[in-house]
Specification:
Residues 559-693 form the GGDEF domain. Helix content is 47%, strand content 20%. The protein is built from 30 helices and 33 strands.
Length: 961
Amino acid sequence: MRLFRLVLLLILPLVAWLAAAVPAGAVESVRVPLDAQAIDLTRWVENYSNQGDRIQVSTAPGSDGIVRRIEVHAREQGAHPAWIVFALTNDTDEQMERLIVAPHYRVVSSGVIWPDLGAERIAEITASQGIAPEKQDMADADVFRLTLDPGSTVTYVAELKTPKLPQLYLWEPEAYKDKTTGLMLYKGIVIGIAGLLALFLTIVFVVKGAVIFPAAAALAWAVLAYVCIDFGFWSKVFGTEANADRIWRAGAETVLAATLVVFLFAYLNLSRWHVRASQLAGVWIVFLLALAGLAVYDAPVASGVARISLATIAGVGFILVVYLATHGVERAVMLIPTWLLLMVWVAAAGFTVNGSINNDLASPALLGGLVLLVMLIGFTIMQSAFASGGVAHGAISDVERKALALTGANEIIFDWDVIADSIFVSSEIEEQLGLGRGALEGPASSWINVLHPQDRDGYRACLDTVIAQRRGRVALDFRLHAADGHYFWFRLRARPVVGPDGQVVRLVGTLVDVTDQKNALERLLHDSVHDNLTGLPNREIFFDRLDMSLTLAETENGHHPTVVCIDIDRFKKINDSVGVSAGDSILLTVARRLGRLIQPRDTLARISNDLFAIILVSEDETEAIVNLADRIRRTLSTPVTFANREIGLSVSIGVALYDPQWHPKREDMLKDAEIAMRYAKRDGGGRIEVFRPSMRSQSSNQQALESELRRAIDRDEIKLLFLPVVRLQDRTVAGFETLLRWQHPRIGKIEQADFLPLAEETGLTIDLTLFVLQRAARELAAWQKALVVDPPIFVTVNISSRQLLRNDLVTDLKNVLARSHVAPTSFRLELSETLAMENPEFSVQLLNRLKDVGAGLSLDDFGSGYSSLAYLQRFPFDSIKIDRAFVRQDGGGDRAVMLRSIVSLAHDFGMEVVAEGAESESDVIELSQIGCEYAQGFAFGQPLSTMDARKLVGAAAEPTG
């Protein structure tokens, strides 16, 4: 038993050694015909790895059918190389000389990601019999000369330097020589063309200096370098090692991609379209140049990214070229054929590196095509650069430059020959005025008839001054009479030309149509001192004229101005019931009626929303003044008809008679008239009161209320209420609109409609709004934390005061949103059309800034004003709120048509629709049927307290601040 174990211990290692040493089977031999010029041995090769420093293989059976074993050792101990084994059979009667060729680099099947960039392939080849293969000195391939004896079968074992052998050929020596000679001639031609093209574009860049030429020249030099590296010319010129070509090849591919980006950016002049284009191109180029540096450390990674980038550039560039070509960019149109060929080249290159195209001529053809593409690019930029001639890019004189500038500016030339007294102007001005050709040419005095009467003296004085002083510049604005009776404003800018004798011989300059600028300036001046709606003077011009009247009263006897204040009773309630559009119509009607009752010497102004004031100087007697006030009261009490509906009015009138002792200043006189007007509003209004000094003590209660309002926020007397906004699709609460209520400790509940006007007068609107923003954002954060829905629940805060349309509102809102962390656009600001239209340009800028900080925007009372449709596209609102006047069932027969039109219009602009005033189930059903998303009103309940709102959304816990 012990003997058996000893024998087993001795036999097992020997069996294991023999099992490792014996190959899997004999190699299949490849028959070599005598007339075969080249044989692709790649698929006949057997690969071996992990064999250590030696390999044992079984040879292919010889002519006697015997299979032998050979053992081959690596050249360097511990190298652990990869091995290949193949066998060749010469069954002819002649001895054969053949070449084993393993190319260092083949673009075919090289791959895109971690591509094979080439290297020395075969270190040594060992033959099983006969003459040992002899290595030939070749730069771009490993070549071994071998001899096959007649009737012999030889097995060859090759030690590899790389784990992968892309291709192995057996060549007839003369055929291989002819092939390399022909390919060398082709390579020389391609390199010569590429070099001449790069040199030519460089010379053109030096001559022309335009940015497009260095970009094209850089692309041409990059292509030349890539061709030289791929054709093996680079290593011959610079004496680099064969394995260093991998680094040069990867670097050349990254530089090629970078220069293609530079060319596309420069040729299409992308910097003029958007600054983002410059930034993107710059980042892309820097990234590619960084890849060129990475090629030193990891050439395959750099090459793979460069190849992907090159394909991306071709695709993105094609989309960009087509887009610009369809938008009329001439350069893009000219580049389409060349870029189409580039797309074809990239596609062919992709098929080649992936192995779909497996042909030895693929690599030379691709490089030749690349040079052809650069040549076409050169022709394209030359055509683009020289198509417009030398004027566009060449050197021009100062006179030519000024002439081109005048033509480009489309300005009218004015030339007065003083000696001949003849004016020449461009024909454009005569066409604009509707005059015949030459109507404005002739003596300078002939312009007097077409000048506005008020501008004639200035015109004469200006020309006379220039001639007299013989220096200076002319900057004169005047109006010219058109054939249809209209006047156009023109600005003359000219300078005199002095002759040798020191006298003015010419006056040369330009005429510019500034009619639009003048009209805009007049509108701005008018709007600054007049009300936008009624066109009446506003508070500023009212005070200016009252100052003048009080000054005259001090110097002239019998000149006693009187201030009359007229306020429409319950106007806010009327406005809410009939809509803002009807409210504006009422104000216009009141303004027209008041204007017919006063004399031209009197001044009528709109002081605030529904408050009008009159400076009465046409009447001095108290009785006459009171009679006029009574006529005003009776005239304004006549109902106003709007949309087949009569709206009854009543007004309260306060009169402040001239009395320097009680109201010597303009503010005092207007304030006393307002005190009398508020006194007339008691007991329902519709009365006239003349100011008495005792009224001031009665108004002290109002002042006390103002003082208490200032402390109400600190005392926590201002309560925030939430009106539910319901999603009509599923009747769920989508959000809330905020309302304010003052819980006065002495008076009790005061609605916001009663104390917000007081806050506006005292400047507390900003503090109240900041209070609402902070509380509403805190509550919204708690709701969204407790109720996770999509879209998230929202809250709407109304911005109703012009004091709030300020830049600080953006900062306040940004700070509030940053602390609350609510969902974007779920915190909504609601502005009325009237407020937004008081200064549309400023409103657009402010609303865009509010939207940028994350606020949602809603347009209130939509459809009730005059300009919502015109400005709807400019204002960045997310939703609109339909005024309650359109929702009410008694709104008229066209109400349903109007509702559908408003909802359809809002949806076309990508906005949601909220309807206010839904008071019944029928209202809700109708709004849902026409596509309205949200609704609010008494149909869904009264405004809720903070705690009730929390309970409704399931957030009963106190929110964190």
